[in-house]
Protein 1
Amino acid sequence: MRYLKVVFAAGVVPGKWFSRFDERVDGWQVGGARSDDPLRHVLSGAADIAIVRFPGPDWDGGVGTGELSDIRDIGEREMLTLDLHRVRLYDETPGVAFPVDHALDALGENEAATESELVDEMVLYRGVDPVSVRENLEVVAANVGCVVAPRPLLRGINRKGVAHRDLSGVPGTAVGLVWRRDRDDEVLQQFVGICRGRRPSSSR
């Protein structure tokens, strides 16, 4: 058995794609791991492909961490300079996390808070860096302030004593695939196709 090494950003739930790959590609399985910096693993060659978060210009943090935190997207320039392929998969909904029993907790699970409701709030962090989100959620759990981040990231961290809701009126983030050009092959393209919704009977 051979393994396709896939790293994925916190808050991403890729289990269905992993299962479909394992079922469809003979002799291969996904070896998956969550990472706070999946881009770094791809660039180093430690992983074959990464499922990353593209924050765009409206959020603190980048596609990676450290020196990679200045990279807000993987566009034509980044694909050329870093020798990467990139495929966007879907957009994420922004969210806001707040202490349990906060006034926003009165919103239904499927209702969204608005920017105007945060005017008088202490926003401790507004961004996509998982480490910063975790650290600031510890403060929120102590009944201080709120954190604005992608809702799937807040759901994935899910700190006790903290509730979260969608946040409307805020530009969202995106999730996509990134892999090195020199790693591209038929097996990896099978995984890309599965993530993009390709059926077993369809061709590339």
Protein 2
Amino acid sequence: MRDRRGLLLLVLLTFVAAVAGVVIGRLYVVPAPPVENELHDLLHRDLKLDSAQHARLEAIEARYAIRRQALEAELRADNAWLAQAIRSEHGYGPQVSAAVDRSHQAMGALQKETLEHIFAMRAVLRPDQTVKFDDAVVKALTAEKK
């Protein structure tokens, strides 16, 4: 009988420890959602869009998704080129420097495309909605990493 209580206590403590691990992991290990997710959540959940706004935003998001995928593929290719240059030169030589410059161009293009996407979404909003949207953009751009 005593062994059974001990076993039950062990199982209960193991369960509590597992739940605590999940909670701690979710609070401290899981990264914050990307800025674009927060903006899209704000758009679709908090701004009370009408059906015409929803339709326009869907089209804007579809175009951006295609362009973002292309730019992200370009970034991956640039990273592969950088890796090859590092493997070849074993230091910061002309090939590595050129690969870094090429990668920065792709990153800049992605950033510009993202900003154009944000402003395109903003153009769909009514003036009363743009205040919240602008606040969310500024907050996202100035928030410190945890």
